[in-house]
Amino acid sequence: MKHPFNLSLYLVLDPDLCGGEQGMVATALAAVAGGVSIVQLRAPRWKKRQWVVAAQALKNALEPLNIPLIINDHIDVALLVDAAGVHVGQQDIAPEMARQLIGPNKILGLSASNAAHIHAVPQGLVDYIGVGPVYATGTKLDASPVIGLNEFAKLMQGKTLPAVAIGGIGLGQVAGLRAAGADGVAVVSAICGQANPRQAARALRREGATYDR
Amino acid sequence: MKHPFNLSLYLVLDPDLCGGEQGMVATALAAVAGGVSIVQLRAPRWKKRQWVVAAQALKNALEPLNIPLIINDHIDVALLVDAAGVHVGQQDIAPEMARQLIGPNKILGLSASNAAHIHAVPQGLVDYIGVGPVYATGTKLDASPVIGLNEFAKLMQGKTLPAVAIGGIGLGQVAGLRAAGADGVAVVSAICGQANPRQAARALRREGATYDR
């Protein structure tokens, strides 16, 4: 059965930004205590032996809390740790192929950066889209051009799936993005590496609370 | 059924060194015409959408020639294109887990750089080991320290599986490595990017011919 998921506050966890494997689990747990509803592990510079260890540790920590763990890019790792889902970008394994590997019972997320991407999302295969970067980001080196809030709002009008806004999002931007149609916001550095990840998450969650379902 | 394989001349194909996707297929076909017996695709800087396309193109080219295609590191890609096998390093997905994902009918290769690695190779799971780097190499940025021919010969005494020598191997070194116990040699730049990959392969194959089974 597919893990139920809620996009309202989506933590993209980069272990290199929050103290490696151990700091990563602590950050995730604090963030969940503060209101994070779903966690993705993204470690583009890591080799896969370390990936598997980290993913398993995160899954063990999140499963009792009923928080789904999404694995970025590496479907082999997701299968090994039986993660709740995978997230692929436009340069990663295509969603049709990703679905073929993961089967019907895992969450599949897809990044989209423009109207053409959103129009091309295969219906019935993908569970949510991540749309961005809305703002400039320093945490993704190969990010697409920045969209901005106005263009993001236009993209939300054409969406047929739940959508999470991503890219340079911090406090003060959540309400605007939710009002523009985002079902949630994804953050990296607004939580990872913050002195108090729990409070950081709580403040972000509170800002989006009006829109939470 | 597992693809039969012969390690005598093992081409590790780095598409960035041989003209991208198209040059890569042409290089592989020329190299096979010259005597390459098995081909691995290794593209550590590539994103996976491109990986899948390249792997499928190579498989289509090699399958009619009965030459097995091995995928480096990315087991998800290997599963998608139904490659003959996968090759993992000491920092990649562990061989036990790799075997779990690929099942019993694919070739599984493992890199080993020292006696401890060779001693730890799980028996009955791995089909061959790649031992090196024997010589200094410029084509693998995260390579282990160089072993040298004498140490390589010692490692061959403790092996319990077919072994292919790898790392900076070119013409003039094949006979010595085979005499030291290698079941074959793996090359990158001795074929990839050479003006005539077929002749380059033929010369390497000829040097090892005394030892071929």
TrEMBL record, chains A, B:
Note on how the cofactor is bound: Binds 1 Mg(2+) ion per subunit.
Residues reported in the UniProt entry to bind 4-amino-2-methyl-5-(diphosphooxymethyl)pyrimidine: 72, 111, 140
One Pfam short name: TMP-TENI
EC identifiers of the protein: 2.5.1.3
Domain Thiamine phosphate synthase/TenI: 9-191
Chain sites annotated for binding 2-[(2R,5Z)-2-carboxy-4-methylthiazol-5(2H)-ylidene]ethyl phosphate: 137-139, 168, 188-189
Cofactor(s) the protein needs: Mg(2+)
The keyword Transferase appears for this protein: yes
Residues binding Mg(2+): 73, 92
Assigned keywords, A-Z: Magnesium, Metal-binding, Thiamine biosynthesis, Transferase
Catalytic activity, reaction form: 2-(2-carboxy-4-methylthiazol-5-yl)ethyl phosphate + 4-amino-2-methyl-5-(diphosphooxymethyl)pyrimidine + 2 H(+) = thiamine phosphate + CO2 + diphosphate; 2-[(2R,5Z)-2-carboxy-4-methylthiazol-5(2H)-ylidene]ethyl phosphate + 4-amino-2-methyl-5-(diphosphooxymethyl)pyrimidine + 2 H(+) = thiamine phosphate + CO2 + diphosphate; 4-methyl-5-(2-phosphooxyethyl)-thiazole + 4-amino-2-methyl-5-(diphosphooxymethyl)pyrimidine + H(+) = thiamine phosphate + diphosphate
Any single biological process term in GO: thiamine diphosphate biosynthetic process
One of the record's GO molecular function terms: thiamine-phosphate diphosphorylase activity
UniProt function note: Condenses 4-methyl-5-(beta-hydroxyethyl)thiazole monophosphate (THZ-P) and 2-methyl-4-amino-5-hydroxymethyl pyrimidine pyrophosphate (HMP-PP) to form thiamine monophosphate (TMP).
Family: Belongs to the thiamine-phosphate synthase family.
PANTHER family with a match to the protein in the record: THIAMINE-PHOSPHATE PYROPHOSPHORYLASE (PTHR20857), THIAMINE-PHOSPHATE SYNTHASE (PTHR20857:SF15)
Name by which UniProt lists this protein: Thiamine-phosphate synthase
Species lineage: Bacteria, Pseudomonadati, Pseudomonadota, Betaproteobacteria, Neisseriales
